[in-house]
Amino acid sequence: MSRKVAFITGASRGIGKWCAIELAAAGYDVAISARTIVDGEEREHSNTLKASDMSALPGSLETTASLVKNEGVEVMAVVADLLDPASLGAAIATVLGRFGRIDVVVHCGRYTGPGHMDRFVDTPIDLLRKQMDANLFGPLTIDKLVIPAMIRQGGGTIINITSAAAYGDPRKPAGDGGWGMGYGISKAALQRVSGFLTVELRHKGIRCFNVNPGFTQTDQMAQALKKDYKTLFGMESENKAAPANVPGKVVRWLCTDPAAEHYVGQTLEAQHFCHQHKLLEGWTGPQVSELDVLDFDMSGFQLKQFATGLKH
Question: Is the dihedral of CA 267, 85, 23, 206 positive or negative?
Fold first, then answer.
């Protein structure tokens, strides 16, 4: 019997890379997707319109593929851009053509570029639209292509890497310790997807989850902290953030532990979950409190309280 197959976007570095490694270690064949093919490629990744940053970030599909191969499974690298639906369609068709199945999709990729850390009045609508396209419609395009194959094979798992910015507002504006609207509204939209898919497709074997990685050490964060948002979240160093394999451990647990059924349609707070369940040996747990930078949206909780009162 062939191994199960995981498809991971944004896998050239950071959280996506570690999700690929963890699922490979769990015995999955892995298809990885991103824009960066080899180390050293340059493209714009400044978070603000106020400056340009074309310096190469560490990591590539080639590097991740090498790490995945070390786990003794098959790996396939496919180049795709979340802003290019045709490339997403070609990537899924190529993976299904080779492996004949996709059992897990992990949406790690997101928009990278100006507008991410700019204020609304300074951000062109086109850049807000790009963030929605990459962070919401890219994943939805992939889901549309993959779900029919998952249903035919008896089921599958979709994991959205979300953010606390989806359900909380920054306490400070972008440039003074907060972040841009585009990131928050696009992640908020993605946050709602798992619930809808669970309502519509759980009975057909489709399991959906949200995973919030929290403040995580990534190659881009390390580089950005040195430049255009050094004071973001009050961190002078990315060392206060969690290792990138923390969300990777949680994704692996969701794909391999039967107890994950209890969390279908829900959001797992990766750092707290990883620490409580001791998924990463030696890690001492979260060091950054979201309460320092976020005002959480309590609308749903408040309405639930009112509705509960009316029922009783």
Answer: positive
DSSP element (H, E) containing 31: strand 29-34
* Domain harbouring 146, CATH code: 3.40.50.720
Low pLDDT (below 50) residues in the chain? 1, 229
Taking Cα atoms as reference points, which of 292, 287, 289, 48 lies closest to residue 171?
292
Q: Find the angle CA(124)-CA(186)-CA(274) to the nearest 5 degrees.
A: 140
Phi, psi for residue 267 in degrees, rounded to 5: -105, 125
117: Cβ contacts below 8 Å, ≥ 6 apart: 47, 48, 174, 175, 179, 180, 228, 229, 232
Domains: count for the chain: 1
What is the extent of the structural domain holding 165? 5-311
Q: Output DSSP code: residue 178.
A: B
The answer to whether the beta carbons of residues 189 and 163 sit under 8 Å apart is no
Paired with 77 in beta bridges are 32
Q: What is the pLDDT of residue 142?
A: 98
Name 158's bridge partners.
105, 208
- C-beta separation of 179 from 116 below 8 A: yes
Residues 6+ apart with CB under 8 A from 159: 104, 105, 106, 107, 208, 209, 210, 211, 251, 254, 255
Whether residue 56 contacts residue 41, with contact meaning beta carbons closer than 8 Å, is answered with: yes
pTM for the full model? 0.94
Phi, psi of 157 (to 5 degrees): -125, 135
